TrEMBL record:
Keywords: Glycoprotein, Glycosidase, Hydrolase. It comes from Coniella lustricola. GO terms for biological process: carbohydrate metabolic process; peptidoglycan turnover. This is Glycosyl hydrolase family 3 N terminal domain-containing protein. The keyword S-adenosyl-L-methionine does not apply. GO terms for molecular function: hydrolase activity, hydrolyzing O-glycosyl compounds. Residues 16-343 form the Glycoside hydrolase family 3 N-terminal domain. The keyword rRNA-binding does not apply. SUPFAM superfamilies: (Trans)glycosidases, Acyl-CoA N-acyltransferases (Nat). It holds the Pfam family Glyco_hydro_3.
Length: 925
């Protein structure tokens, strides 16, 4: 038997070298220090984390990274250093250079644009810029779901509070980063989106959700990102878990979190990176030596020790001692080493590492990236309310009227010239709250006083070409100076930044709003505009604030976009993320769109484009959409009436939405409902849904209305969505969703290695169950009678279609010992035209051959499970005979699929079919 390390370069058999690869370290300073040089040369450090304290400019960064890589190369490192940093955009950027590095919106700001295409372009541009200076791993994207959105320090660094929306934007960011050639690291596992802060600086923030609750929310983006196969690393958070199902003091030191939850349950086999073990709570409680060993024991591959040289040496000594004590085995070290080397091989080489393109490439990219930055910020600016029609200010205020700007005292964002100026003066400021202590740990905290919004005020005055009054406000509340300025001004703009966590801002704003309301009642003009420049949750639900704008960060770039929005240079189109978007009650949400009948000749190409856009924006569980086309929805049957509807741009011919409907006997069916991802949440779906129901309900004999159809089998029902968002949407549209029928599609991914379970054939024989295969309609009467007795009418149409396809389809019948038909299933060979109506049977790649086992129907009896297993077995045999590489069984009702899991099938996707009475809708006329 080969040794576990047999595939490794002999150099790595020296455990000092292997340990060095398992460490991620940094330092303070803009030049290489003797300490970091020693770590690379003598301790074989394999990964470096850079922060804003290391980076002065793009040119200096490229030179610094090149020097670090040269040191490693000359020291005999077999592969380059991993060079990583945080470059989330918005308020969290390690590298800032106004001349070469572009500022882009935060994660939530990008989600506010509603454009996955824009999010992809921003991610790719960001990665291109940091790659140009030699960075090969980005600590991102943020995959945290804001389960408790209003009080969490992660704030706008998250895409929002909807797990599926966070998934979509996270996966899009990963694609952008990867397409630019750098490795990715999702963070912060399991979540920083709902933390409970206990108060002491030595207390680690705690997750109080159960595993079940986490699985339905926080873990969804990780599950979906891992399923793409493009997530290289996961950053394990420095938080505890205290719930009924798990009690963990430090997530990154827990095998329950890393090995069991991340690796076993979610299937992640990439690099796990620990939170910095220099954090005070861990340092004081466990010590760094023990912490490094525990982190590796838990399943972490890269151990982060941020900047303290003595602590870093202690961490190295800890790993060596762990091996000496037999706590860590050579095999465990080599498992992590292989993962790290695999990551490095995918994102760097010595040719790249020693010659970063630097300013030459950045100069080429900068003009287009500046345009992208402007577009992204303008698309993100969100006007949540403007009930008094104050915007743009150029129309609601005269030049001679005075405008008052009131701004809070805040820390400037790392990616800003204000920060750079203050750092140059070595100014310091204590951090105010426990939230801030935790979220800014290891990072200098700076307060700029009134200076952070000074440039904004000047630019505002220039744009208005009129008088501007500007002062700040503090926790001291509304002072006489504020009252005097409010009396003078005709318009007041109040800026808030995380008012939910800085409650003085909320109190100040409400006090000013009350003063303005009182003065308006006396006939004075007091137009009030509130701008949330960080969290959009500050006054999202407070309708007493009539004009409310959100920018999602307060970098200089964001503030300039805000000014253009305030004065009408563009019309803000941003929408609030997640549940805020769903609850937003504005004119836009009441829009009615013109719905037209679908015409295949006119709309077919547009529908194909729409399906591709939806597929690109969907979670991996809906991968079948990539093989769906407009033809999938067209059926030819005298028994089925079909009518499809579209919302379209008659000028560009683009489709914004599509709805497929079918009517068979007494049942009206909605078989699909698509909306262009960039056009969601503006009532296109509701307009299509209303039109579809009006069409179906006009049939005099209609007895039921159904969501999902087996023919064509694109959507047998609502795709099971961990967040429940889709189900909630239909529930709010009049559907009773309490009692769905679950339809599950399962798969055997490799038929060649599959074997029939022990004892199955013997059990079938003993039960007297026989199977035969029929083709064509000649012998089909008993089958169709059997189908009609067990299932909906559209399933009989599916069977009829299969029996017509005599060359590529057949039906397997199961009969009991008395010769009675007790089960049936459709068998479809690879490449059959039948698969066009069941897209999950179509291969994702041209070389893959997929065999189909479709619509198993089994008569209820004590032998029903055995009959189902026998039909599945016969189907796999037929697929194997047709040289299929995998078998897809679509679909199995309710919990029957569990009987197939023991046969080697795996769940591919699940749907919920919903059937309601037409009486649910009485107001559609």
């Amino acid at each position: 038997m080969a040794k576990p390390e047999g595939d490794l370069d002999p150099l790595w058999l020296d455990l000092d070298w292997a340990i060095g690869q398992m460490l991620l370290m940094g330092w303070d300073g803009t030049e290489v220090t003797p300490q970091i040089r020693s770590l690379i040369e003598e301790h074989h450090l394999g990964s470096i984390i850079l922060t804003a304290k290391n980076l002065k400019s793009a040119h200096q960064t490229a030179k610094l990274v090149q020097e670090l890589q040269t040191i490693a190369h000359q020291a005999g490192h077999p592969c380059p250093l991993l060079i990583t940093l945080d470059q989330e955009n918005g308020g969290v950027n390690s590298l800032f250079d106004e001349d070469y590095i572009c500022q882009f919106p935060s994660s939530m700001g990008l989600a506010a644009t509603g454009s996955l295409e824009l999010a992809y372009n921003v991610a790719k541009a960001t990665a291109q810029e940091i790659s140009a200076v030699g960075v090969n791993l980005i600590i991102g994207p943020v995959l945290d779901v804001l389960t408790n959105a209003r009080f969490q320090p992660i704030g706008v660094r998250s895409s929002g509070d909807d797990p599926q929306e966070v998934s979509q934007y996270g996966i899009t960011a990963i694609k952008g980063y990867k397409d630019a050639g750098i490795a990715t690291c999702g963070k912060h596992f399991p979540t920083y989106g709902n933390l409970d802060f206990r108060g002491s600086s030595l207390d680690v923030p705690i997750i109080t959700q159960t595993l079940e609750e986490l699985s339905l929310s926080a873990l969804v983006p990780y599950r979906n990102a891992i399923a793409t196969g493009r997530l290289d690393a996961v950053f394990i958070g420095g938080c505890g878990i205290a719930s009924a199902t798990m009690n963990v003091s430090h997530a990154c030191l827990s095998d329950q979190v890393v090995d069991e939850l991340l690796r076993q349950e979610l299937g992640f086999d990439g690099v796990a990176i620990s939170e910095c073990l220099e954090m005070e709570a861990l340092y004081q409680e466990i010590g760094v030596k023990g912490g490094t060993v525990r982190a590796v024991e838990a399943g972490c591959d890269l151990i982060l020790l941020c900047k303290d040289y003595n602590i870093q040496l202690e961490g190295i000594a800890g790993l060596k001692l762990g091996i000496e004590n037999g706590i860590l085995s050579r095999e465990r070290i080599f498992t992590s080493l292989r993962r790290i080397l695999r990551l490095k091989s995918n994102c760097t080489s010595w040719a790249q590492a020693l010659n970063p393109p630097g300013l030459s490439l950045l100069s080429q990219l900068h003009p287009s990236h500046l345009n992208l930055s402007r577009q992204a910020y303008e698309s993100s600016i969100t006007v949540m309310r403007d009930t008094e029609r104050l915007l743009p200010l150029s129309k609601s205020m005269e030049k001679e009227e005075e405008l008052l700007l009131l701004t809070p005292l805040v820390k400037p964002l790392p990616a800003s010239s204000a920060t750079k100026a203050i750092e140059a003066k070595n100014s310091k400021k204590n951090i105010a709250t426990e939230h801030d202590k935790w979220s800014h740990r290891g990072r200098s905290a700076i307060m700029s006083g009134e200076g952070v919004f000074r440039d904004f005020g000047r630019s505002l005055a220039r744009a208005r070409n009129g008088k501007l009054l500007h002062t700040s406000y503090t926790a001291n509340g509304v002072r006489p100076v504020h009252e005097n300025l409010i009396l003078r001004a005709s318009g007041i703009i109040i800026v808030t930044a995380d008012a939910n966590r800085n409650l003085y801002q909320s109190g100040f704003t409400k006090h000013v709003a009350m003063i303005c309301s009182s003065l308006r009642a006396n006939g004075q003009k007091k137009s009030l505009v509130v701008v949330a420049v960080s969290s959009p949750y500050d006054f999202a639900m407070d309708r007493s604030i009539g004009t409310y704008i959100c920018t999602f960060d307060f970098t200089e770039t964001a503030m300039q976009a805000l000014i253009r929005a305030l004065f009408g240079e563009f019309s803000p189109k941003g929408t609030l993320p997640g549940t805020l978007r769903k609850s937003k009650k504005v004119i836009k949400s009441r829009q009615q769109w013109l719905v037209e009948n679908y015409e295949s000749e006119r709309d077919g190409n547009g529908l194909d484009d729409l399906i591709r856009a939806v597929a690109k924006a969907s979670a991996p569980s809906l991968a079948f959409l990539r093989t769906t086309s407009a033809a999938s929805f067209e059926i030819s049957s005298d028994n089925v009436e079909q009518a499809h509807f579209v919302v379209r741009n008659s000028s560009t011919k683009a489709l914004y939405g599509f709805c497929a409907t079918y009517y068979i006997k007494d049942a009206g069916i909605i078989g699909a409902l698509f909306v262009e991802p960039a056009k969601r949440n503006v009532s296109i779906g509701r307009s299509l849904h209303r039109r579809a129901l009006r069409h179906l309900l006009q049939h005099a004999g209609i007895q039921k209305v159904q969501l999902g159809t087996a023919y064509p089998c694109v959507f047998p029902g609502i795709p099971v969505d961990e967040s429940g968002a889709l189900k909630s949407w239909f529930a709010s549209s009049g559907w009773d969703t309490q009692f769905p029928r679950t339809l599950t599609t399962v798969i055997i991914k490799d038929i060649s290695s599959w074997t029939v379970p022990d004892g199955l054939t013997q059990s079938i024989t003993r039960a007297g169950i026989n199977f035969d295969l029929i083709h064509g309609l000649g012998n089909a009467e008993s089958v169709l009678s059997h189908v009609n007795s067990l299932c909906h009418d559209e399933v009989a149409e599916l069977y009829t279609l299969a029996l017509h396809e005599t060359r590529s389809c057949g039906v397997v019948r199961a009969k009991n010992a008395a010769g009675k038909l007790v089960g049936s299933v459709i068998i479809c060979s690879p490449g059959s035209p039948f698969r066009l109506k069941v897209p999950c049977l179509q291969a994702a790649s041209g070389t893959e051959l997929v065999g189909g086992i479709v619509a198993p129907l089994v008569e209820p009896s004590p032998q029903a499970t055995l009959v189902l297993q026998g039909l599945a077995y016969m189907g796999v045999r037929q697929n194997k005979a047709h040289r299929a590489s995998r078998s897809v069984l679509s679909w199995v009702t309710d919990d029957s699929y569990e009987a197939l899991l023991g046969m080697g099938f795996q769940v591919l996707q699940s749907f919920e079919e919903i059937t309601n009475s037409p009486d649910n809708w009485t107001d559609l006329s």
